[in-house]
Amino acid sequence: MLRTNHLSVAAFLALALPFGSAQAQVRVQILHASDLEGGVEAIDRAPLFAAIVEGLEADAAQKGVTSLLLSAGDNYIPGPFFNAAGDPAMRPVFQAVLENPTAREGVGRVDISIMNLLGFDASAVGNHEFDAGPSIYRTIVGTDIVGGTEPRWLGADFPYLSSNLDFSGEPSLAGLFTNDILPSTAFLSPISNLPTAAAAKKFARATIVEKDGERFGIVGATTPIVESISSTGGVLVKGPGAGTNDMVALASIVQPVIDELILDGVDKIVLVSHLQQLSLEQTLVPLLFGVDVVIAGGSDTLLADGTNVLQPGNVAQGSYPVVATNAGGEPTLIVSTDGEYSYVGRLVVDFDAAGVVVPASVDAVESGAYAANEAGVLALFPDLVVPFQTGTQAAKVRTLTEAVKGIVIAKDSVILGRSDVFLEGRREKVRTEETNLGNLTADANLAVGKLVDPRVRVSIKNGGGIRAEIGAIDGITGELLPTQANPQSGKLEGEVSQLDIENSLRFNNALSLVTLTRAQLKEVLEHAVAAWTPTSTPGQFGQVGGVSFSFDPSLPAGQRVRTAGFIEEGSGFPLFVFEGQVVGGPAVRCITLDFLASGGDNYPFDDFIAADPVFANRVDLVSAGLLPGASTFANPGTEQDALAEFLLAEHATVPYAEPETNPTLDQRVQNLSLRADTVLRVVRQALFLP
User: Fold this and answer.
1) Owning domain of residue 98
2) Where are the beta strands (DSSP E) in 8-162?
3) Residues 152 and 247 both lie in one domain
4) What CA–CA distance (Å, rounded) separates 246 from 540?
5) What is the number of structural domains in the chain?
6) How far apart are CA 116 and CA 157, in angstroms?
7) How many H-runs (helices) and E-runs (strands) does the chain carry?
8) Would you say residue 362 lies in a domain?
9) CB 225 within 8 Å of CB 602
10) What is the pLDDT of residues 465-520, one digit of tens each?
11) Residue 52 CB-density burial (10 A; 0-12 exposed, 13-18 middle, 19+ buried)
């Protein structure tokens, strides 16, 4: 039986006539990843990840199983790994590995080179691809062929897919987009044919991957809130759901693209989606006809089964795969893995004669999450030598990452402070609760803010801006440890380096001062916790300094903050919210990230500034005349520099010792679903009040 779903009679006839004969059941392997986001961990993990991909593809080939390799987006992120690719020392490495004597270095190019070497078939457009701005995105995925004869860079050899983004208003990317649904090979930029390479598109709504006589439709979807959480320039979200997680609106954009593929005779449909919360993919699937598999991205949700051996300290957040039902009443399999090259996802499944997945065909021993570590490689190879023999893709990936290692080791030798404790910066923590690293960096921002304006009393930043912990996790016990010694750089246990700071605060946001009324400050805190749920990890979740507040997540968003008070001297009237109501008092000078001050993560700062710019008195610290301090690797007025200077001033010899606590003991951000409200006590103790 042919797949018809919700298509009209005319559409069904257009589909049925050319493809009237049923095909046999086919077994397919889909290898997948999301949020590769090369950080420091990628130096060691990426070659192991590559070896596992090669091993699993060889296994599939031996069994006669068709294999695809797909990404759900966020393939890179600004940070040490990203930046190292732009170091001049990388030029000869790129030239050798890419077999291109005119290749040039450039930020983000190691990440894309790894994907090209492994042969990714397609990727969703994530939000972090835009973090450095669309013009940098262009230099990473597009080509740079000087004079038509000198290929300095050939870009991505796979299509970036998004059915709900409009690229037409962004000059740097518009020319790389095609509205046509082309074979995935049409996006290649071969060095052997430079005119074809230069003309190749890099963005589309969907693509068709043709392998072993089978055709697979790959459709992309990007989080509809991308404009508020990244720097998209003129790239806009399509449709009425722009700026919201309205899955009904998103389905209305995605469905016509799926229909086009079905009308073209493609009956196996995979959605690569970057929606940031697995629950959103689960909401979207029942609204779509014809989708068979969803590769979910952006949430770092680790799905696994009982046969999977996970990375140390990891716990599965759900079963692999999630079996859902689409709008046509057919099964849809949803898969997701944790990011940063930590796992290769493997789904091996049968498609029946109508192109519908058969969930019962998924063998837990065969499918699941394959940890990118030495044990994972040894499960596929006889030793750790064979997969890295000269000529293998894994060996080429290792050559790239070893070059990156040399660059970042130099940064790990620059010591800026000490910590006796693990500094908690993991996604599932900084986006859901107060953490000691959140406190430390918020306090560092507060300190530099006071240098410019002594009236500053409150610091607030988003948890999504903290990208990694500073410390280590014991591989056997799971114990959280301070940083470990690195003999290669001379770093000692407990020392915090330039590399640690750059890796954790990868965006290095500039800082801004803004004056708020107390009512406006409450609105900001309300937004900081508005998206909290027991199962979500919203990037807007607040990490704060100079303030303590409680929130009740059982109340509607915008009405959750119950008590709030200052824990910095000089504020006057220290309690400014009591029983959910604003307590009057003088205005409050705050420091925040310029990203948030400009409306990033939908914070309301920009609305307050626009309403009364004189009162708000926004001052951007990078242009406030701050002189360089003891640390000079980052510009004054940025969060990396603020943390470096704070550590040098406060913890150069006396280690930072505030341990990470269970949320039931958090003081600055008190979740009333987990603990009692003690904000008043905290404020009194901090200000030495009776």
Assistant:
1) 26-402
2) 26-33, 66-71, 122-124, 144-146, 150-153, 160-161
3) yes
4) 18
5) 2
6) 6
7) 22, 34
8) yes
9) yes
10) 998 889 887 766 778 899 988 888 899 999 999 999 998 998 999 999 999 999 99
11) buried
In 3D, which of 142, 198, 196, 145 has the Cα closest to residue 167?
142
Let me know: does 616 contact 515? Beta carbons within 8 Å.
Answer: yes
Burial of 334 from C-beta contacts in 10 A (0-12 / 13-18 / 19+): buried
AA identity, residue 341? Y
Kindly state whether residues 385 and 432 are assigned to the same domain. no
Q: List the CATH number of the domain containing 540.
A: 3.90.780
Give me the residues of the chain with pLDDT under 70, please.
1-23, 475-476, 570-572
Whether residues 359 and 460 share a domain: the answer is no
Q: Do 337 and 8 form a contact (C-beta atoms < 8 A)?
A: no
Report the pLDDT value the prediction gives residue 505, as an integer from 0 to 100. Answer: 94
Residues 310 and 392 in one domain: yes
- pLDDT digits over 361-386, tens only? 999 999 999 999 999 999 999 999 99
- Asked if residues 334 and 281 have their Cβ atoms less than 8 Å apart, the reply is yes
Whole-number pLDDT of residue 572: 64
Asked if 272 and 319 sit in the same domain, the reply is yes
- Rounded distance between C-alpha atoms, residue 441 and residue 628, angstroms: 18
Residue position matching structure tokens 């200052």? 566
Amino acid at 457: R
Q: What is the pLDDT of residue 472?
A: 84
Residue holding tokens 């550590």? 647
> Which string of b and e fits 248-258 if b means at least 16 CB within 10 Å?
ebbbbbbbebb
Q: Does residue 654 come out as left (phi exceeding 0), alpha (psi in the -120 to 50 range) or beta?
A: beta
Tell the residue number behind the tokens 């998206």, with chain if given.
531
CA distance 541 to 460: 10
Which two tokens mark 14?
């257009």
Token representation of residue 608: 């307050």
- Do 432 and 312 lie in a common domain? no
Instruction: State whether 181 and 236 are in the same domain.
Output: yes
Give domain status of residue 315, yes or no.
yes
- Domain CATH for 278: 3.60.21.10
Q: pTM here?
A: 0.77
Instruction: Judge whether 460 lies within some domain.
Output: yes
pLDDT for position 480 = 87
- Beta strand 331-335 pairing with 293-297: parallel
Q: What is the pLDDT of residue 475?
A: 61
Q: Could you give the CA distance from residue 14 to residue 577 in angstroms, rounded to a whole number?
A: 64
Note whether 390 and 452 are same-domain residues: no
Q: Which of 264, 309, 337, 294 is nearest to 37 (CA)?
A: 337
Tell the residue number behind the tokens 């990230």, with chain if given.
Answer: 593
- Is 481 domain-assigned? no
* CA 674 – CA 27 distance, rounded (Å): 47
